Amino acid sequence: MNILDCGIPVKRGLDLSKTKREDAIGIHRRIHASCSNGYFQFGSGRLICQSNGEWKYNIHCEDRAWTGGRYETKKMYFIWSESGEKVNYTNWNPPNPDIYRNQEHFIQMLDCGRWNDNNCNQKLPYICEKKFNV
Questions:
Q1: What are the disulfide bonds (predicted)?
Q2: Could you tell me what percent of the chain has a pLDDT over 90?
Q3: Each residue's pLDDT tens digit, 64-96
Q4: Using CA of residue 102, residue 105, residue 107, residue 108, what is the dihedral sign?
Q5: Which of 66, 90, 120, 132 is 20 to 30 Å from 110 by CA-CA measure?
Q6: What is the per-residue burial (b if ≥16 Cβ within 10 Å, else e) of 15-37?
Q7: Which sign does the torsion angle of CA 34, 11, 72, 126 carry?
Protein backbone atom coordinates (compact mmCIF):
# COMPACT_ATOMS: atom_id res chain seq x y z
CA MET A 1 0.00 0.00 0.00
CA ASN A 2 1.38 3.39 -0.97
CA ILE A 3 0.51 6.66 0.74
CA LEU A 4 -0.10 9.80 -1.28
CA ASP A 5 0.82 13.26 -0.02
CA CYS A 6 -2.70 13.59 1.40
CA GLY A 7 -2.54 10.32 3.31
CA ILE A 8 -5.12 8.44 1.24
CA PRO A 9 -4.16 4.79 0.73
CA VAL A 10 -3.76 3.86 -2.92
CA LYS A 11 -5.59 0.60 -3.56
CA ARG A 12 -6.48 -1.10 -6.80
CA GLY A 13 -9.86 0.04 -7.98
CA LEU A 14 -10.03 3.16 -5.80
CA ASP A 15 -10.98 6.20 -7.85
CA LEU A 16 -8.97 8.94 -6.14
CA SER A 17 -10.73 11.63 -8.17
CA LYS A 18 -13.91 10.80 -6.19
CA THR A 19 -12.14 10.64 -2.82
CA LYS A 20 -11.85 13.87 -0.87
CA ARG A 21 -8.66 14.81 0.95
CA GLU A 22 -10.47 14.70 4.28
CA ASP A 23 -11.32 11.01 3.82
CA ALA A 24 -7.97 9.93 5.28
CA ILE A 25 -4.99 11.42 7.05
CA GLY A 26 -1.43 10.51 7.82
CA ILE A 27 1.57 11.84 9.64
CA HIS A 28 3.15 14.86 7.95
CA ARG A 29 0.08 14.95 5.74
CA ARG A 30 -2.97 17.19 5.65
CA ILE A 31 -5.62 16.79 8.30
CA HIS A 32 -9.14 17.99 7.67
CA ALA A 33 -10.34 20.51 10.25
CA SER A 34 -13.16 18.19 11.36
CA CYS A 35 -10.51 15.88 12.84
CA SER A 36 -9.09 18.63 15.01
CA ASN A 37 -12.01 18.82 17.47
CA GLY A 38 -10.68 17.92 20.90
CA TYR A 39 -7.15 18.17 19.53
CA PHE A 40 -4.32 18.43 22.05
CA GLN A 41 -0.99 19.96 21.12
CA PHE A 42 2.08 18.51 22.80
CA GLY A 43 5.86 18.73 22.46
CA SER A 44 7.39 20.36 19.43
CA GLY A 45 4.50 19.51 17.12
CA ARG A 46 2.46 22.37 15.75
CA LEU A 47 -0.97 22.80 14.24
CA ILE A 48 -1.17 25.38 11.47
CA CYS A 49 -4.00 26.53 9.23
CA GLN A 50 -3.25 26.59 5.53
CA SER A 51 -4.70 29.13 3.13
CA ASN A 52 -7.14 26.59 1.68
CA GLY A 53 -8.75 26.05 5.09
CA GLU A 54 -7.20 22.65 5.79
CA TRP A 55 -5.17 21.95 8.89
CA LYS A 56 -1.71 20.50 8.83
CA TYR A 57 -0.01 18.99 11.85
CA ASN A 58 3.68 18.12 11.84
CA ILE A 59 4.54 15.35 14.25
CA HIS A 60 8.25 15.28 14.98
CA CYS A 61 10.17 12.26 16.22
CA GLU A 62 10.01 13.37 19.86
CA ASP A 63 6.20 13.67 19.74
CA ARG A 64 3.80 10.92 20.65
CA ALA A 65 0.29 10.34 19.32
CA TRP A 66 -2.70 8.14 20.09
CA THR A 67 -3.44 5.67 17.29
CA GLY A 68 -6.99 4.61 18.19
CA GLY A 69 -5.92 1.08 19.10
CA ARG A 70 -6.95 -0.40 22.44
CA TYR A 71 -6.59 -3.66 24.33
CA GLU A 72 -9.68 -5.85 24.40
CA THR A 73 -9.39 -7.48 27.83
CA LYS A 74 -11.91 -10.29 27.24
CA LYS A 75 -10.32 -11.27 23.91
CA MET A 76 -6.74 -10.59 25.09
CA TYR A 77 -5.64 -8.73 21.95
CA PHE A 78 -5.62 -5.18 20.58
CA ILE A 79 -8.42 -3.84 18.35
CA TRP A 80 -9.01 -0.61 16.42
CA SER A 81 -11.56 1.43 18.39
CA GLU A 82 -13.61 2.66 15.43
CA SER A 83 -13.96 -0.56 13.43
CA GLY A 84 -13.55 -3.11 16.23
CA GLU A 85 -11.20 -5.10 13.99
CA LYS A 86 -8.20 -6.92 15.42
CA VAL A 87 -4.87 -5.11 15.05
CA ASN A 88 -2.95 -7.29 12.58
CA TYR A 89 0.05 -5.06 11.85
CA THR A 90 2.18 -4.03 14.83
CA ASN A 91 5.37 -2.04 15.35
CA TRP A 92 5.93 -2.42 19.11
CA ASN A 93 8.87 -0.83 20.86
CA PRO A 94 10.31 -3.75 22.93
CA PRO A 95 9.38 -4.98 25.51
CA ASN A 96 5.88 -3.76 24.65
CA PRO A 97 3.07 -4.50 24.81
CA ASP A 98 3.35 -5.28 28.50
CA ILE A 99 -0.09 -4.13 29.75
CA TYR A 100 1.82 -2.76 32.77
CA ARG A 101 -0.10 -3.26 36.03
CA ASN A 102 -3.12 -4.04 33.86
CA GLN A 103 -3.47 -0.29 33.25
CA GLU A 104 -1.89 0.26 29.83
CA HIS A 105 -4.65 -0.57 27.35
CA PHE A 106 -4.17 2.05 24.61
CA ILE A 107 -1.70 2.20 21.71
CA GLN A 108 0.40 5.33 21.36
CA MET A 109 2.94 5.93 18.64
CA LEU A 110 6.39 7.15 19.63
CA ASP A 111 9.94 7.31 18.31
CA CYS A 112 9.03 7.91 14.67
CA GLY A 113 6.61 5.06 14.37
CA ARG A 114 7.35 2.58 17.16
CA TRP A 115 4.40 1.66 19.40
CA ASN A 116 3.90 1.68 23.16
CA ASP A 117 0.94 0.58 25.26
CA ASN A 118 -0.04 3.24 27.79
CA ASN A 119 -2.89 4.38 30.01
CA CYS A 120 -5.18 7.08 28.67
CA ASN A 121 -4.44 9.88 31.14
CA GLN A 122 -2.05 11.76 28.83
CA LYS A 123 -3.23 14.51 26.49
CA LEU A 124 -1.61 13.75 23.13
CA PRO A 125 -2.22 14.44 19.45
CA TYR A 126 -4.15 11.68 17.74
CA ILE A 127 -4.44 10.03 14.37
CA CYS A 128 -8.01 9.82 13.08
CA GLU A 129 -9.56 6.68 11.67
CA LYS A 130 -12.33 7.38 9.21
CA LYS A 131 -14.18 4.99 6.92
CA PHE A 132 -14.54 5.84 3.27
CA ASN A 133 -16.46 4.08 0.52
CA VAL A 134 -14.48 2.33 -2.19
A1: 6-49
A2: 22
A3: 888 888 999 988 999 988 788 899 989 999 999
A4: negative
A5: 132
A6: eeeebebbbbbbbebbbbeebee
A7: negative
| 125 preceded by a cis bond (ω within 30 of 0) | no
In sequence order, what are the residues at sequence separation of 6 or more whose Cβ sits closer than 8 angstroms to the Cβ of residue 78? 69, 70, 71, 72, 86, 87, 90, 97, 107
What Rg value do the Cα atoms of the chain yield, rounded?
Answer: 16
The number of residues in the chain equals 134
Q: What is the CATH number of the domain that holds 97?
A: 3.10.100
CA angle 131/2/58 to nearest 5° reads: 75
pLDDT at 125: 76
Coil vs helix vs strand at 128: coil
**In sequence order, which residues have a C-beta less than 8 Å from that of residue 55 and are 6 or more positions away?**
30, 31, 32, 33, 35, 36, 47, 48, 49
**Count of CB atoms situated within 10 Å of the CB of 41:** 13
Cα 71–chain centre separation: 15
Q: Structural domain tally of the chain?
A: 1
